[in-house]
């Protein structure tokens, strides 16, 4: 080859990478892989498999519940008998204590005063909290509890919770203020429940225990310590003051009279229990405070249920 050789021009062809295999041309008639159909078939299989699994698990759960119900029904008579054997002696003791009016008045004045004075404070807190349930917090109580749930919480749930919380308190003050908070909450719930229930008139719930707390020590000293005379005079004073105030204020209605008697009956029963179990100045009175407040609130609710009207009474 000579120096005069002419270099041939090269076409503009892009260089080919020696390690790259050229792709075949795309066939326009080729169809995409059937991925959607495969997913649909897999989903159907998963649904059938899970359905069988869940049906099997529910059947096993039902069989377990059936066996447990059979066991419980077989053991129920023995459990009921055991509970009955534990409760009956205590219930009989309480009934006998309330019914026994013979002998000397043995309730210590400090125990009586402590029981009924703090009961009056708790009832006042409940009464003051009731308008919150009627006017402000009522819608929230209605959302979370409803009427039936509110009744269960107010008349059963809160007293039972208070009973278990004060059985072994760290201190007397802690037990009393725990009950105070619970019965204030009860007042809110009761205010919601009785928002559209009206009585012609009713006595102040805190007045009866307050009168008992004030009247018991002087009456005990004046009547010589007879249980029947002392208890009758103290309860009579409480009922009499309520009726006198109702007469002076023009609250001469049957619900007012009935509630005065019911509140007096609660005071009588608790005083009788204190004659049996509250004979020392350091006697634990939390359960008797709880009994007084819960019973008075329940009596108030029952009278509302029987005699309450949906419209406010007309003023004469």
UniProtKB/TrEMBL annotation:
Q: Where is this region: Disordered?
A: 1-37
Segments traversing the membrane: 116-134, 140-165, 177-198, 204-223, 230-250, 256-275, 287-307
Q: Tell me the domain of life.
A: Eukaryota
Q: Low complexity composition bias: which ranges?
A: 28-37
Q: Name one Pfam family in it.
A: ZYG-11_interact
Q: Which UniProt keywords apply?
A: Membrane, Transmembrane, Transmembrane helix
Q: Does the keyword Transmembrane helix apply?
A: yes
Q: Does the keyword rRNA-binding apply?
A: no
- For this entry, the protein name equals Uncharacterized protein
């Amino acid at each position: 080859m000579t120096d005069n050789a002419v270099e041939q021009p090269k076409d503009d062809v892009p260089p080919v990478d020696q390690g790259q295999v050229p792709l075949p041309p795309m066939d326009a008639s080729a169809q995409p892989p059937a991925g959607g159909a495969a997913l649909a078939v897999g989903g159907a299989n998963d649904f059938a498999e899970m359905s069988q699994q869940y049906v099997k698990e529910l059947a096993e759960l039902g069989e377990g519940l059936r066996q447990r119900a059979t066991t419980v029904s077989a053991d129920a008579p023995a459990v009921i008998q055991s509970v009955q054997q534990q409760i009956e002696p205590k219930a009989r003791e309480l009934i006998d204590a309330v019914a026994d009016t013979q002998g000397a008045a043995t309730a210590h004045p400090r125990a009586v005063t402590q029981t009924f004075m703090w009961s009056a404070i708790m009832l006042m807190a409940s009464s003051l909290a009731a308008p919150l349930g009627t006017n402000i917090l009522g819608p929230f109580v209605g959302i979370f509890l409803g009427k039936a749930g509110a009744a269960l919480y107010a008349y059963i749930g809160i007293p039972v919770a208070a009973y278990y919380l004060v059985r072994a308190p760290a201190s007397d003050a802690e037990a009393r203020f725990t009950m105070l908070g619970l019965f204030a909450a009860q007042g809110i719930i009761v205010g919601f429940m009785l928002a559209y229930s009206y009585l012609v008139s009713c006595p102040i719930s805190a007045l009866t225990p307050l009168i008992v707390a004030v009247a018991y020590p002087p009456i005990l000293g004046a009547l010589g310590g007879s249980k029947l005379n002392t208890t009758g005079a103290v309860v009579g004073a409480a009922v009499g003051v309520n009726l006198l105030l109702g007469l002076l204020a023009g609250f001469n209605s049957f619900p007012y009279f009935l509630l005065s008697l019911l509140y007096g009956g609660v005071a009588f029963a608790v005083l009788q229990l204190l004659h049996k179990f509250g004979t020392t100045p350091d006697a634990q009175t939390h359960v008797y405070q709880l009994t007084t407040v819960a019973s008075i609130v329940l009596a108030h609710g029952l009278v509302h249920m029987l005699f309450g009207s949906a419209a406010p009474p007309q003023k004469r």
